[in-house]
Amino acid sequence: MPGLRAPVEPRESGERRPLLERRPREPRRWWRAAAAAVLLVEMLERAAFFGVAGNLVLYLNSADFHWAGEQASRAALVFLGASYLLAPVGGWLADVYLGRHRAIALSLLLYLAASGLLAATAFPDGRRSFCGEMLSLPLGPACPSHGCLHTSPTPYCAPTLYAVLLLLALAASSVRSNLTSFGADQVMDLGRHANRRFFNWFYWSINVGAVLSLLVLAFIQQNISFLLGYSIIVGCVGLAFFIFLFATPSFITKPPTGSQVSSMLKLALQNCCPRRWRRHSARDPPGAQLLPDQRSPQAGPSPQEDIANFQVLVKILPVMVTLVPYWMVYFQMQSTYVLQGLHLQIPDIFPDYPANRSAALRAQGSGYKIPEAWLLLANVVVLLILVPVKDHLLDPLLLRCKLLPSALQKMALGMFFGFTSVIVAGVLEMERLEYIGHNQTVSQQIGQNTYYAAPLSIWWQTPQYLLIGISEIFASIPGLEFAYSEAPRSMQGAMMGIFFCLSGVGSLLGSSLVALLSLPGGWLHCPEDSGNINKCRMDLYFFLLAGIQAATALLYIGIAGRYERVAQGPASQSCPRRDSG
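That's the Solute carrier family 15 member 3 sequence above. Prediction below.
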């Protein structure tokens, strides 16, 4: 009733917006402070996350662990996938029990503990405490005869490292799914345009954190010490936790209102398996088959609103599922692209100034190596430059000219750039293998490891990183906006969790594909290469990903076009669309 609630923007599904708990404050002053605190926490958390993900392949491939190249890449993809796949868990806990503010605070505490455990594996006493002694490997060729089948040994410390990585993934996924919607809550009352700008700057802050991580942490980890690098990660998480608690008085907070997941599952079962639902309902006591909101006298969505919300989800989910192959391509940036870069020639920093080098480095005859993870900066710099340009110049201009593409159209363009990136990576890998086939290799020391690289500069990887960065602007940012704005208000947190979960599905599918192709006879099976990839056919893997992306992009265009036609039909007859401004 209008007399009992503050006026709110009506939704198409007819649902009521839940009340927000507000603290007394001056609106124009405090929403900026709250939004700034959220962006700063996100920047520090992303710096910590990229500090783990950026050099994880190199860390596991080092002399401390001796993981094979495909084992390290698979672990990186599992970590990245789990950090997105577990997002609904944190969102569900926030909706049902904790509320978003408390869920974020507890997740940051878990983050702090898990990053401390990872740092403990970076020094000998910590490794022995958590992993035991490393078994010494017998000397000799890994595969004595040509064509023999040889499986890689079980990687050292795998149970401990996978457990730590999964704890980090759980904490990161919970922070991601809750902090995104929590930040959007701070500007919700300022209109749709404020929401769009918040998501642009939220993504910008993610990449500021990535720059700090890749410029500083990646260099320290590769050239000085992984222990020091991981200790800085612990400090970043601790600072983020302190800032979040310090800014609490300025936040708009929302208490846990319950989750509609069970209602949605029951409605899905009713629609997909009506016979089984009727048999199940017949065995239940009277009233047990009713939806929770039908049995509860408390305020909340009515049964009709549940059905309307379910219909909205049925239309949204196919669009989001067709983004999964894009995420398979996207996460190569932090796994196989890194592995490829380690087998390209990496120049030294300050090679002509021996005074700048330690005695140990002078004995090796080389200076500091440019961190391979710095190639990720090409992706990040594109985002840092283009997001403000898009926010302040391009979007307002297109909006005035009534040419601003919809979020779905932008996502299709992002898929195209992702497809182009992986094609470029495949062509570069073909060229690299040409040099390897003619025995033109360069031995280079990176950290404690020796890699036999092709005499091709690592800067040739820059185009594929630039293209994946451009794809992120058009696929990931509009994807976030689409998931938040098109979902029913009572399920926005859950929908953000589903969006990140499907991102994780893409990473895990990429990891599964790597594992499948690493079996004897597969393109990535090269155990006689002892951790290098010079006998693998990673170019064919890249081209396979490109084919999967191209086929799914065609399917996406059909699904997205149908969604827009259905969405515009009722809107043109009644009222303007919600995302018109």
